[in-house]
Write a structure and sequence with these properties.
The protein is an alpha+beta fold. It has one domain (13-161). It has four helices and nine strands; from the N terminus they run αββαβββββααββ. Strands 1, 2, 3, 4, 5, 6, 7, 8 and 9 form a nine-stranded antiparallel β-sheet that branches. β3 (86-89) and β4 (93-96) form a beta hairpin. It is globular. The N and C termini lie far apart (36 Å). The relative contact order is 0.27.
Length: 164
């Protein structure tokens, strides 16, 4: 196992915002982290998942081709208001309970995901073994590509504009 430093500093809010607010539909390489609560028997294990992928920012959810097609085919209803939080800077930034979140959209890029248990890189199955059974099943189960990512700003590690 590779020991990986978990004390990565996140970008400041102004650095993130200046990168994401450059234009409509821009492509960005983004890295972010998330922490999951381990099962009670592993309460001393710090779990962290790091994801790096290329996303689009500055896009309106209602204008996504998948959303339009879903509405047209009757597979989904009309686009509603946010289920939680409020827009601070539409369509980029959401505020909820004193935290800020960036709304970005996946591309065809395949995400690179690293799993860490108390600072050591582990494979997905080992990481899942530290979770509750329901969380492990959710992690290991098949997933559909999400229509958007809503990432807590304090968890964003890096951003880089992708130039075509």
């Amino acid at each position: 196992m590779t020991n990986t430093n978990t004390n990565i500093q996140s970008l400041t809010a102004s650095e993130i915002l200046s990168n994401f607010f450059k234009g409509k539909g821009q492509f960005m390489r983004v890295a972010w982290k998330s922490n999951e609560k381990p099962a009670a028997s592993y309460k001393d294990v710090v779990l962290e998942k790091r994801t790096t992928t290329i996303v689009r920012s500055g896009v309106e959810f209602k204008n996504l081709s998948s959303v339009k097609a879903g509405i047209e085919s009757g597979e989904r209803g009309e686009v509603q208001e946010l289920p939680w939080g409020e827009w601070v800077q539409y369509p980029h930034l959401i505020k909820h309970k004193d935290s800020y979140y960036c709304r970005v959209y996946p591309t065809d890029s395949i995400p690179v995901v690293k799993y860490l248990a108390s600072g050591e890189e582990v494979d997905k199955e080992k990481y899942a073994s530290y979770l509750t059974p329901s969380s492990a099943q959710k992690l290991l189960g098949e997933k559909e590509k999400p229509e958007c990512f809503t990432i807590k700003m304090e968890n964003i590690i890096s951003t880089e504009e992708v130039i075509n």
